[in-house]
Amino acid sequence: MSDEMRWDEDPPRDEALARLLRAGDAAVPYRTVNWARLSTEVMRRARAAVPGGDWWECIAGWGRIAVAASVAAILLSGLMLWRISSMPAGEAVGTAPESVAIARVATAYPVETAFASLVRTEHHDEFTTWGVR
Amino acid sequence: MVSAGEGEDTPDTAPVPVPPDPDEAAAIVRVQQGETESFELLVRRYMRGAYTVASRLLGHHQDAEDVVQEALLAALTNIRTFDTSRPFGPWLYRIVVTRSLNLRKSRARRQTESIERGDLASREPGPGTSAERSALRDAIREALARLPERQRLVVQLFELDGFSGAEIAAMLDIPAGTVRWHLHEARRALRGLLAQFQESDE
Prior knowledge:
The complex is a heterodimer of chains A (133) and B (202).
Chain A: H1 15-24, H2 35-49, H3 51-86, H4 91-94, H5 97-108, H6 111-127
Helix pairs in contact in A: 5-6
Chain B: H1 22-32, H2 39-58, H3 61-77, H4 88-106, H5 117-123, H6 130-146, H7 149-160, H8 165-172, H9 176-193, H10 195-201
């Protein structure tokens, strides 16, 4: 057990002292540790503790599909806008069946009659059985 | 540097110092970028050393294992603050020391069962009869118990566990010269306390 000490570098290990300590009371109980289970458990908790990583990986996985869907949606929207803008004014509204029916009634009869007809129709729709009246 | 998990098939030997792994820094960078799976390399490499430090401080197997888990997760959580130009081991061991001391403080009143330290000694061939071996164990335990805790920890980590003075300094957050002074004092004290056994040992 020599003990020539220098403070700027580590001394050589004292094998005699180490042997003595090992014979007595100094062993770390490595055998009691299941190392594979320990690393598995740490990694399981690590994955749960860093949701950002999983979230990012999930987003990255869907990235290409999201880009393709976005491009398709933009093209479809553009096409619809082009079709609407190319129609004559009022045509888009006028082509709907309900709008056509109302327009016919409103233009064929005086306003009061047309209004009363529409209101009455609504009333009858609500309180009478179809086809009876 | 002290490796952790590579020697799983030699469970009763102390951690073996290994040269720094060039893949380690790359793995740390990947973890910092959010690739959690790369953390496994660090876990496998350092869990054994972390367990050694925790076990020395806590003297209790299950507590030591719990601290290793908590320290590794804390390291992962704070990995973005880690300077990749520095070695990972001492940084992790410093976390282990802090967590171990906190746990010990919080469980100061708890009666901790002793780890199976006598087990290894009983398997090793020793001089003389079992009564003599028992006397030797008692004397060594008593000698270690009489050391100031920092000296005891330094001499165990250096002589038995293969840590360097610089690594011990980093984990205890003290200068390396102070570590060597503690080692010097611990050796001197143990030499005096165990003089009779040293003579028969040599």
